[in-house]
Specification:
Largest sheet: 10 strands, mixed
CATH architecture of the largest domain: 3-Layer(aba) Sandwich
Length: 299
């Protein structure tokens, strides 16, 4: 019997790539945990040599549609086998994947995509569709690699005191509680630039004060999560003399899930995707959830 829920759904982009199949498995499990329906989205691709004129070639278009129906049918069967209680719907569209998924994200609660689809170049660590979605989606986006293992334990989240990271922290705490996993909040700070201009005694004093400030910020950030999820085990990890991407990647090396915000204090205000988010997405081996900031949610 299917689980009937609200219109919010776990939207999963599907094609016949290995990354997509891994994303499909992750999305199906997440939908079962959150008791949400699954919406499978497949964007039909016409040969680039034909361009828009391809739509006029009826026989070729029918062939592409038939292939699309096959991909969606196999994906639907895979979801029903993995999560038999979850309601599944499908969406087959003739438009670029990024546009199709972004349209569906407007009413979705979560978008799940493979790190790279069948259109990706082998030399790219992250596909253009994935990057576009994490920069523009109004809801959280999960990027899953083909190599993503499910044996890791714990949820890791980056915290820098910004509103974007606090929103990511709330999402991570809820997800950790659903998974029955422990949560590790990571904050990295560095005084290298200031230290090069200061005498050692003065540098040591400033470093101590800065460490206290950052430690207090991290503690205050996670305090609310403990109140909302009293049974959740939360660890605080303060890292000095390391870049934020490096600190997050090291902390999540054996983790199950990494959660980040789209913007933080270190990002340029006009950038759609922060430098930390971009670096982590390019290098992380485990599934990464990118939670949009409030202003993106309002777009």
């Amino acid at each position: 019997m299917a689980i009937h829920t609200t219109t919010r759904a776990v939207v999963i982009g599907v094609d016949d790539s290995p990354h997509s199949r891994r994303a499909l498995d992750w999305g199906a499990a997440e939908a079962a945990r959150r008791r949400l329906p699954v919406r499978l989205v497949h964007a039909l691709r016409y040969p680039p040599t034909y361009g828009e004129a391809f739509m006029l070639a009826t026989d070729l278009l029918e062939g592409v549609q038939e292939e699309g129906r096959r991909v969606v049918a196999e994906a639907e069967e895979r979801v029903r086998e993995a999560a038999p209680g979850v309601e599944v719907s499908t969406c087959l569209v003739l438009e670029p994947p990024r546009r199709a998924l972004l349209d569906q994200a407007a009413s979705g609660g979560l978008v799940v995509v493979g790190a790279r689809g069948r259109g990706g170049l082998s030399g790219l660590l992250l596909g253009s569709t994935s990057l576009y979605l994490v920069a523009h989606s109004p809801c959280p986006v999960v990027v899953v690699r083909e190599s993503a293992a499910s044996r890791g334990r714990g949820v890791v989240v980056g915290v820098d005191g910004s509103l974007a990271s606090l929103r990511a922290l709330r999402w991570a705490a809820e997800e950790a509680a659903l998974l029955g996993e422990e949560l590790t909040a990571v904050h990295a700070w560095d005084l290298a630039d200031a230290g090069s201009m200061l005498a050692p005694p003065l540098y040591a004093g400033i470093a101590h004060d800065y460490a206290s400030e950052h430690r207090l910020m991290l503690a205050e950030s996670v305090a609310g999560m403990c109140e909302d999820h009293p049974d959740l085990v939360v660890h605080q990890r303060l890292v000095h003399d390391a870049s934020t991407p490096r600190a997050l990647l090291e902390a999540s090396r054996d983790g199950r899930l990494l959660v980040i915000g789209t913007r933080g204090h270190g990002a340029v205000a006009s950038a759609l995707l922060g430098s930390t988010s971009h670096a982590v997405l390019q290098k992380a081996a485990l599934p990464v959830v990118v939670v949009p900031s409030e202003d993106e949610d309002a777009r």
